[in-house]
Amino acid sequence: MNLVKASGSIGKYVRQSKLPSGIPKIEFILIVESNYLKNTRTGSNQISYVSCQAFGANALGLSNIVKEGRKLTINKGELATAWKTVGDEQVPKIVITVQEFLFK
Q: 72 and 10 in contact (C-beta within 8 Å)?
C-alpha cells in the first residue's frame, strides 16, 4: 500500500455523487505547492494539481466543508490509479483516496 500525506488548498473542481451501491463519493482537486521543485520559467515553487477522492463516512465528512480555497491536510491517503479518456484512448491518472483529513 502506498500511503501519502499532503497539504494544500481545495481547487474549483468539487463533485459529489453516489456509487451504484449508494455509497457517497466526493472528488476534488488539491492544489499543492512544492517546497523543493522550482518552476524553471519563473523560479517560484512548483504547483501540482492532485486529484483526490473519498468514499463513505469520509465523503460525508468532507461534503459540507470542502469549498474552493479552503486549506486541507490529508493525514493519510492511499495512492490509486483511475482511468480517464483522452481523445480515443484510456490513460491512467494517479488519485489520492482520502482516509484521514484535517482542515486548517
A: yes
- Could you tell me which of 77, 63, 78 has the C-alpha nearest to residue 28? 63
Among 54, 47, 45, smallest CA distance to 32 is for 47
Q: Which of 14, 45, 48 shows the shortest CA–CA distance to 31?
A: 48
First to last CA, the chain: 27
Contact 97, 7 (CB under 8 A): no
Neighbours of 53 (CB within 10 A): 19
User: What totals of helices (H) and strands (E) does the chain contain, helices first?
Assistant: 1, 5
Confidence (pLDDT) at 93:
85
Nine cell digits for residue 82:
483511475
Q: What mean pLDDT comes out for the span 38-61?
A: 86
What 3-state DSSP class applies to 62?
A: helix
pLDDT at residue number 1: 66
